[in-house]
Amino acid sequence: MTADSAVETLSYPEANTARDLVARAVDRGAMVTLFGRCTVEYDGRAASSLGPGDRHVTLKPDGASLVHTDEGQQPVNWQPPGCEHAVTVTDGALELCSERSNPDETLEISFETVAHAAAFDVSDPEELAVTGTEADLKERILEDPDLVEPGFTPLATERATPAGAVDVYGEDESGRTVVVELKRRRVGPDAVGQLDRYVDALERDLHAGTAVRGVLVAPSVTDRARQLLAKKGLEFVSLEPVQ
Amino acid sequence: MTADSAVETLSYPEANTARDLVARAVDRGAMVTLFGRCTVEYDGRAASSLGPGDRHVTLKPDGASLVHTDEGQQPVNWQPPGCEHAVTVTDGALELCSERSNPDETLEISFETVAHAAAFDVSDPEELAVTGTEADLKERILEDPDLVEPGFTPLATERATPAGAVDVYGEDESGRTVVVELKRRRVGPDAVGQLDRYVDALERDLHAGTAVRGVLVAPSVTDRARQLLAKKGLEFVSLEPVQ
DNA sequence: TTCTTCATCTCGAAA
DNA sequence: TTTCGAGGTGAAGAA
Predict the structure, then answer these.
(1) Residue ranges of chain A with per-residue pLDDT less than 70
(2) Least CB–CB distance from A81: residue in B3, B72, B76
(3) Residue B205: what pLDDT?
């Protein structure tokens, strides 16, 4: 990354000047950012309209667009990767359009004023390494199945059932089938419903009369989830992904 | 928004110069963006590590932080609103730290090179107006209950049950209780589980022997969801939020 | 492609 | 503060 090539910026450019920078940057696969007063229209899975205000806009080389206000972690409007970015000047105003198909969606940004425009040539070879996920919880259990209960034996992970894949499938000390559903954090009623669907599907899939135990493994459960577990005859084991 | 006050930028600044700009901007409640080669460490609900690469960093006045690579709609690392942003120079490197409590979480960004730094004074009075939401679907049904089925009479929305609030609660032509669950888009098994919980809770809550009908209203359902509906004795009505 | 589930989900509303 | 469900959820993996 050198000073000559990596960054190109404009302060309060004319619309045509900004358009040229954006067009060139999009063409060469650079990341573009704009800041200024704009309106935003979206139409696709839903539809939205945003009146004039100061926002920060990002166009990524993979086709994603982001419109950020001064508040919130989430963009106020956006377009996912895979879009075509187009930039034009209409009636003296810089206009961006990001479009995609399947589903057909359009994002249109019209700038009343462009306060800042920048293009960045990005090189990022690194992958993010995350720990503390559900996958970590699964590994913890496979390494030490007694954490679920003494005598538990895992037989498969992601075992297919008519209701979907079971996180951990195994049997208890006395040979009964056990379905384990894992959650990396405190769970509500939805996770209980999920476990119940798997247990139900397996009881039908295996031969009649086979009792299947369902065990929810998570750091903790809410009250309603606990009541639902009791009603469905399911069990809970408290365990965290790490430590 | 004037040229004098709204935007302040630096290209390839010294670490101390960048620190001063960031510190002043954070102090006055401006939005800050940085672009350059950096590493990122996160520790909190999970933990992650990201080796050196070129990224775009945003610090928002509400305490949110975003780290974006050249790919993806989602930031590779982030911190939600409510954090304290701190900026320092350590061993000649610009370092940002965004920290919050409950849960305790820390995001640390260390710049090897700052290619660009900018501060933006933002004014955004507008609210986003969205259509095509679940609320629109609800209004559509309340205006014309026959869309659910001829003779359907809504009696309440968001009616409380021991399992949570029911979207639309009413009765059919023959006076039987009907629970309606709304989804703005095609649904899977999770939505069926949700409806089933409400129906079950209401049957217990009302007097014994009261049959409660459950109707899922959505544009469409997946195969598994349809099977699950059949097994649970629940119904489906195809309806979109708009048009 | 569609389907299913995970996510540092985020966000908002209500208790 | 916690809980619960909506979301233009996004993203990944499998069928």
Answers:
(1) 1-5
(2) B72
(3) 86
